[in-house]
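Worked example 2:
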Amino acid sequence: MHDGSGVARANQGIPPLDIVQVLSASGTKTIAGTQRGGVWISVDEGAAWAEFNNDRTRREFVLSLQVSEGRLYAGTQSGKVFVAGF
């Protein structure tokens, strides 16, 4: 949704009550870490988002994201670090 100020809302697909805590980017991908929904990925500059989780990360509060050498690292509030091929 564009508000006329040159800024557009870019969270289509992320649950409406979830809060984006951290953003990162790698190439054409944008990654969002959320407070209740784990990790989400966009390949179209935030127009649409897809969940990038498994059963263990889906409910995690993500505090940090890092992409390195084809892997995505997500640090959580519970002190866990999750790694996935990216």
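The chain has a mean pLDDT of 87. The two ends are 29 Å apart (CA to CA).
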